Amino acid sequence: MTSRESSKETRRKVEAGLAKRYRHERLFKLAGVLATTVGVAFLGVFFLDLFAKGASAFGQGYMQLDVEFDAEVIAPGGELDIVYADFDGLVRSALRDEFPEVSGRSERRELYKLVSIGASYQIQDMIEADPELLGTTRSIWVPASAVVDMYIKGNIDRSLDESMRPLSDAQLDWVDSLLSSGKLESRFNSALFSNGDSREPELAGIKGALMGSFYMLIVTVLLAFPIGVAAAIYLEEFAPRNRWSDLIEVNINNLAAVPSIVFGLLGLAVFINWMGIPRSAPLVGGLVLSLLTLPVIIIASRAAIKAVPPSIREAALGLGASRMQVVFHHVMPLALPGMLTGAIIGMSRALGESAPLLMIGMVAFIVDVPNGFSDPATALPVQIYLWADSPERAFAERTSAAIIVLLGFLLVMNLTAVIIRKRMERKW
Description:
Blueprint: H1 3-54, E1 59-68, H2 71-74, H3 87-98, H4 105-112, H5 118-129, E2 137-143, H6 146-152, H7 169-180, E3 184-188, H8 191-194, H9 207-238, H10 243-255, H11 260-274, H12 282-306, H13 310-318, H14 323-351, H15 355-359, H16 380-388, H17 394-424
Antiparallel strand pairs: 1-2, 1-3
Helix pairs in contact: 1-17, 3-5, 9-12, 9-14, 9-16, 11-12, 12-14, 13-14, 14-17, 16-17
């Protein structure tokens, strides 16, 4: 074979190999695009389903009633007594006045079910705020019951047999009458953000869970961030390189991968059983979440410190700076964006955790909004878990609404981390 023929054969083999490699590359790119498309499609279906179920929870049915603040009912004997005042009687009287044709005990019981029990508490709050209302008649909007709210949102099929739906034919006629007269309408559900938990879906809110999560995150930030940053600085800048520092580094990396429920067991054993901190308090929840977040902050802070060029340290040392001055005057300002990013990502993980909080008693049904770090509280992920386990259909949309709020907070926190990194990072 001549050299020319040999060159042609070699070129042919190379071109055949290149064609094969290009074909494999195209297949790999196609597989990557397909995988990305499938992932985005599933994510889109999840968000569409979530918003479709949860958007209606931001509205709540309200009914307009002409309530007569009868002094004989509220203040018999001329003296107002909130404890013994019959506020339910005022609501029922207003309903009877709205539908005077309703008679009989059973029909009236069905009529009374159209209004939430929160109406009587609303009237009580009005009387406490303004006792001058006694003896007057006011037109007020009170929350409708959960089944009425579900009906006006289109979640109850009236074509079903009466025995198969929560509203009777008579109740549907009353609701239709209120809708046609403009005395029943859907308004913004402010109770979702201003109330604590409740057994009644129309009164249930996430304020208690939000405040519980807020107090826990404060404890977590105050403990995990300074300790994590200090540990990262020591391990990266001052700790000697020996088997002990290697062992500590391995254990920190392992702790970052430990299931979160293990930290809940640790918190139950140490903080509650040994230290005696009250169960279901934001303080113990924050301590547990601090343990959970600490490895993440340490790893992110060490990575940020490593990213600072050695020339910065060498230049500072060459100008006579001490080791401490090098770290705090030169390395720390440059590594701070990465540290803050890691801390915010760690806080995002802590905000979405529920398993360790279940182990320390934060799964309890708590109505009151916590006012401090030692008050009984729950967290937003745990509140979602509780509502998802409720049999009432109206809680399903509130579960989706709470998930939307939680995702919103997580999105804001992660967006904040990205903005901080973009604004403060320096390139060398």
